[in-house]
């Protein structure tokens, strides 16, 4: 992974020209996005490069809007898990220009949202990490996209034992949505950099 991180750091340094540079870490569930992001942030910190990170899963909608809606489970996960247009207008658009803005964060315990004020420096690398980031509603806001490519079998083994027992949920919800994303969006082909993990 160190070679991947060094390469990514070099690419970002070479390509960063704007004051705000949005780097997306895309990949399917348990591909290693969070681990790579944390390690990359440490490298940026060591280089004294201003940066901030957002996790797209912090901005999902309440359960009643994404479960038992009458739609197929995979559709709920892919299309209803996030308010796509809200995130585009109140998150991605503001990352480009706003110094201060409010953003809703999902609280899984209360199944509600809490508003937080975001303060961004004039010049920084903004890392957005999560699944399905290259969907057409969001892709245009990113300066550089990394796609972590990891086989389904390896990703599934990274789930805890209790989660692995609910195989039907993976088959009906997660894997079908992932298959749709791979076929409809072609994230491997559209990414600026593909990392095999």
Summarize, please:
With 197 residues, this protein is of the alpha/beta class. The chain contains 8 helices and 7 strands. The protein has a single domain, classed as P-loop containing nucleotide triphosphate hydrolases (Rossmann fold), CATH 3.40.50.300.
What can you see in these coordinates?
This protein has 197 residues and is of the alpha/beta class. The chain has one domain (1-12, 24-196): P-loop containing nucleotide triphosphate hydrolases (Rossmann fold), CATH 3.40.50. The protein has 8 helices and 7 strands. A 5-stranded parallel sheet has the order 2-5-1-6-7, with helices on both faces. The protein has a two-stranded antiparallel ribbon with strand order 3-4. Strand 3 (100-107) and strand 4 (112-119) form a beta hairpin. The longest helix is centred in the C-terminal third of the chain and has 18 residues, at 167-184. The protein is globular. It holds the Pfam family PRK. Residues 22-196 form the Phosphoribulokinase/uridine kinase domain.
Radius of gyration: 17 Å
CATH superfamily: P-loop containing nucleotide triphosphate hydrolases
CATH top level label: Alpha Beta
Mean pLDDT: 92
CATH topology: Rossmann fold
**Relative strand content:** 15-25%
Number of helices: 8
Q: What's the architecture, going by CATH?
A: 3-Layer(aba) Sandwich
Major β-sheet annotation: 5 strands, parallel
The ordered H/E elements are HEHEHHEEEEHHHHE
InterPro entries: P-loop_NTPase, PRK/URK
Domain Phosphoribulokinase/uridine kinase: 22-196
Organism: Rossellomorea vietnamensis
Pfam family, one: PRK
């Amino acid at each position: 992974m160190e070679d991947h991180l060094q390469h990514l750091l070099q690419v970002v340094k070479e390509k960063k020209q704007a004051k705000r540079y949005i780097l997306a870490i895309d990949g399917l569930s348990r591909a290693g996005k969070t681990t790579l992001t944390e390690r990359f942030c440490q490298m940026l910190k060591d280089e004294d490069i201003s940066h901030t990170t957002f996790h797209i899963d912090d901005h999902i909608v309440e359960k009643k809007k994404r479960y038992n809606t009458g739609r197929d489970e995979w559709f709920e996960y892919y299309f209803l898990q996030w308010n796509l247009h809200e995130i585009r207008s109140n998150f991605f658009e503001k990352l480009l220009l706003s110094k201060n803005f409010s953003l809703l964060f999902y609280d899984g315990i209360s199944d509600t949202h809490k508003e937080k004020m975001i303060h961004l420096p004039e010049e920084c690398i903004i890392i957005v990490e999560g699944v399905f980031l290259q969907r057409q509603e969001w892709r245009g806001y990113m300066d550089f996209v990394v796609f972590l490519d990891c086989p389904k079998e390896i990703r599934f083994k990274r789930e805890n034992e209790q989660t692995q027992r609910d195989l039907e949920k993976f088959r009906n919800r997660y894997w079908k949505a992932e298959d749709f994303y791979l076929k409809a969006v072609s994230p491997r082909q559209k990414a600026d950099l593909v990392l095999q993990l």
